[in-house]
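Lab notebook, bench 4. The sequencing result for the construct came back, and we need a structural model before the next group meeting so we can plan mutations. Quick request posted to the team channel:

Model the 3D structure of this chain.
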Amino acid sequence: MSCLINRFFMKLFKTSDMHIVTEIQLAFGFRPPSNIITDRVKSFCTKYESCDNQMTQAFAAAFIASDLFVSYC
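Done. Here's the predicted structure in token form:
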């Protein structure tokens, strides 16, 4: 997905230099989708763990015990 976005910036600013594209993305405050997804997953995990619902807490305990929790949160 980041390749698609990089190509979009290359065409938008008519350049083929990735260093320029990276600088433009930083200047405009653009974050790669992978960073956005990681931040959203961490936010979800935090909210999910702090929920008062007992059913949610049971699922959270199972999720924390799995390998998915370690890789995302």
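The mean pLDDT is 83.
Will bring this to the meeting.
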